[in-house]
Amino acid sequence: MSKVRVRFAPSPTGGLHLGGVRTVLFNYLFAKKHGGDFIVRVEDTDQSRFVEGAEEYIFDCLTWCGIEADESVLKGGPYAPYRQSERKNLYKEYAEKLVTEGHAYYAFDTPEEIEAMREKRKAEGSGSLQYDAGVRLNMNNSLRLLPEETAALLAAGKPYVIRIKVEANSTVSFTDMIRGEITFDTNNVDDKVLLKADGMPTYHLAVVVDDYLMKITHAFRGEEWLPSAPIHILLWKHLFGIENMVEWAHLPLILKPDGNGKLSKRDGDRLGFPVYAMDWKDPKTGDITKGFKELGFLPEAFLNMLAMLGWNPGTEQEVFTMDELIEAFSIDRVHKGGAKFDFEKAKWFNHQWIQKLPVKSYGLRIKAILEEKGIKIGDDIYFEKVLELLKERCTLLSDFYEQASYFFTAPTQWDEAAVKPKWNEAKNDFFTAFIEKIKGTTEFNAQTIEIIFKELATEKN
RNA sequence: GCCGCGUUGGUCAAGGGGUUAAGACGCUUCCCUUUCACGGAAGAGUCACGGGUUCGAUUCCCGUACGUGGUACCA
Q1: Using the CB atom, is residue A225 less than 7 Å from strand B?
Q2: A196 CB inside 7 Å of strand B
Q3: Which of the following is catalytic: A75, A237, A262, A265?
Q4: Residue A5's beta-bridge partner residues?
Q5: Pairing between β-strand A37-40 and β-strand A5-8 as defined by DSSP bridges
Q6: For residues A199 and A88, is the Cβ–Cβ distance under 8 A?
Q7: Does at least one atom of strand B sit less than 7 Å from the CB of A348?
Q8: How far is CA A445 from CA A388, A391, A448, in A?
Q9: Is A332 exposed, middle or buried (0-12, 13-18, 19+ CB in 10 A)?
Q10: Whole-angstrom Cα distance, residue A99 to residue A58?
Q11: What was the ipTM of the complex prediction?
Q12: Which residue of A102, A249, A274, A277 is most buried, as measured by CB atoms within 10 A?
């Protein structure tokens, strides 16, 4: 069997969604589990939806998550370029090959004509409004036109698309790694556009061509792709041979916690939790959408939480390091049904990870949070001691601010002659005693801390 | 509308023809604690419905309901 190669193929259209990160994670776990390669390919074939900075942002998110691609736009690799816009010419060749072999055709219909066709089908009471075998011979395409008519239109520069020709009254089957055998009736599959009028491929053509060319062996994607899977399978069959096709795995969706539907950015805004991995600033509106990172999540916790959404190891273990995840992961334990996202559980994972990791692994981030609020950290040893003491009561990194601020601000605020000298002269000893005294029992608010400070100062004098 | 996929507590879920149907989050109560968190203990809460198959169905089959996705020159 050839080396496992998987790919994550985002479109640079905005923030990186929870579901996207989980797709990355499952790809990555599968690849690493099998000693394979993880590739990141940028699918920027829709120029109208291109968003400045989105591609860079996606890579930043992966870096934060600690997931490194073996081949990517940034890293390069033997199958470069990894950005589809830079591979444009390639797709056209394959599309034309399909036309030559009778599996696709040129279509010159205007959007209005297609709309009219749909209206007509609707009026006729047809259950389907598709551009398919039922109507294609009435449309303005190379199947209906005489060859010389088509040639003339092409020569005249008339805009066209290339559509796949899906045979009627047939079936397409494949085995999904998660769902098993799935069969589609081709009468329900339409003649999807493969090559757009601007010469760019659609997703359908581009994935198949690139997965083949980049020697991808297993393709993970969201369940929303399941209905178009027959198109991809037909394309594999016509272009590269069904025996060379990737193995498909359609991942369950992540749904909103309340009501119904797929989790979206708006739900996060509405319900007060993040949906993106990191803060995303829309370059057009300037709006910032909060991310898990900035909210105070540890990447370990974020990934751990995502891994348990739609997958489980079959044991009672819930807290996993990346290595443990790689070890335990198996595709047949991935759920078929979608899972509602639960922010409370996500926070629980973060709490677990704050306890599990040594404070120095995330101390810098807390330092940044405190300093942003105007608290200067002078003494790193004392700082770590305080964090160690407080960590068990923190769920988000930002909670450290509320918990710790008094430890760094109080003495200067009180301006107590009895306290200040101690603070300045023997800080560490003083705080060792202090920490000993308050261990496990005290709420760290200004008042209680002040009382104990005074007690200690008095005792020592 | 049409097509696909799915359905174990409020949520994530294990399990699977005969079980007291795991565990976690959340919730309630209690303990710890001068208060809050943390921690500990206990508790409430579930196999969508209707037909089969079977000695027996939450588990298998068929329907229904519900959910969800697709139905774009978006991915």
Answers
A1: yes
A2: yes
A3: A265
A4: A37
A5: parallel
A6: yes
A7: yes
A8: 17, 16, 6
A9: exposed
A10: 36
A11: 0.95
A12: A277
Query: Which residue in A408, A403, A402, A357 sits closest to A380, CA to CA?
Result: A408
Asked if residues A268 and A289 have their Cβ atoms less than 8 Å apart, the reply is yes
pTM: 0.91
C-alpha span between A444 and A454 (Å, rounded): 15
> CA of A28 and C1' of B18: distance in angstroms?
42
Chain A 263-302, CB < 7 Å to strand B: none
- Mean residue pLDDT of chain A comes to 89
Smallest Cα–Cα separation from A54: which of A305, A295, A277, A307? A277
Is the minimum distance from the CB of A127 to strand B below 7 Å? yes
Give percent of chain A above pLDDT 70: 88
Check residue A14 and give left, alpha or beta (phi > 0: left; psi -120 to 50: alpha): left
Q: Is the dihedral of CA A453, A454, A458, A461 positive or negative?
A: positive
- Rounded to 5°, angle at Cα A271 from A287 and A313: 110
Give the integer Cα–Cα distance in Å for A405 and A373. 9
Does residue A65 approach strand B to less than 7 Å at its CB?
A: no
Torsion angle of the four alpha carbons A39, A40, A42, A43, in this order, in degrees rounded to the nearest 10: 60
> Residue for token digits 């209206």?
A119
According to DSSP, the residues that pair with A248 across neighbouring strands are: A176, A219
Side chain identity, residue A142: S
Q: What is the mean pLDDT of residues A298-320?
A: 96
CA of A27 to C1' of B7 (A): 26
Taking chain A, what is the end-to-end CA distance rounded to the nearest angstrom? 77
Q: Which helix (H) or strand (E) holds A184?
A: strand A180-185
| Residues A56-76: b if buried by 16+ CB within 10 A, e if exposed | ebbbebbebbebebebbbeee
Q: What is the pLDDT of residues A70-114, one digit of tens each?
A: 999 999 999 999 999 999 999 999 999 999 999 999 999 999 999
Answer yes or no: are the C-beta atoms of A208 and A74 closer than 8 Å. Answer: no
User: Mind listing the pLDDT tens digit for each residue in A43-80?
Assistant: 999 999 999 999 999 999 999 999 999 999 999 999 99
Provide the token pair at A40: 């990141």
Is A265 one of the annotated active-site residues of the chain?
Answer: yes
What is the pLDDT at residue A434? 60
| C-alpha span between A191 and A105 (Å, rounded) | 9
In this complex, the nucleotide whose C1' atom is nearest to the CA atom of residue A310 is: B12
